[in-house]
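Weekly structure sync, notes
Attendees: PL (lead), two postdocs, one rotation student
Agenda item 3: pending single-chain targets
PL asked that the sequence for the first pending target be pasted directly into the notes so everyone works from the same version. It is reproduced below exactly as submitted, 112 residues in total.
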Amino acid sequence: MLESFRKNKIGISLMLISSICVCIGQLLWKISNSKGIMYLLGGFMFYGLGALIMIIAYKYGSLSVLQPMLSLNYIFSLILAKTILNEEITLTKLIGILIIMCGVTFIGGGDD
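Predicted structure, written out during the meeting:
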């Protein structure tokens, strides 16, 4: 498992950055509903940057390892929703996060 993470380290790191950019973009889209077009445009910029980084990430790792990393978007979105929008994190959401983290770990570590 550790060998798979070492082998795909750059790709995984880039996918994490991509996920964060995409989630920030989506958050800005949500906020733009009440704050205006600049937030909408900022959202498109972050989302596009995330997509570009994702394309670059595929050069540095296996598709079967990197693609499931996009599931981390759910975790980052939940964190942003709590910290920025003050949304509630329920027990069900926490259990879902744990399941996603386990799945990403198992799939990411399975490229031996």
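Discussion points:
- The helical segments are 2-7, 9-35, 37-57, 63-66, 72-85, 91-108.
- The chain is about 80% helix and 0% strand.
Action: rotation student to compare against the earlier draft before next sync.
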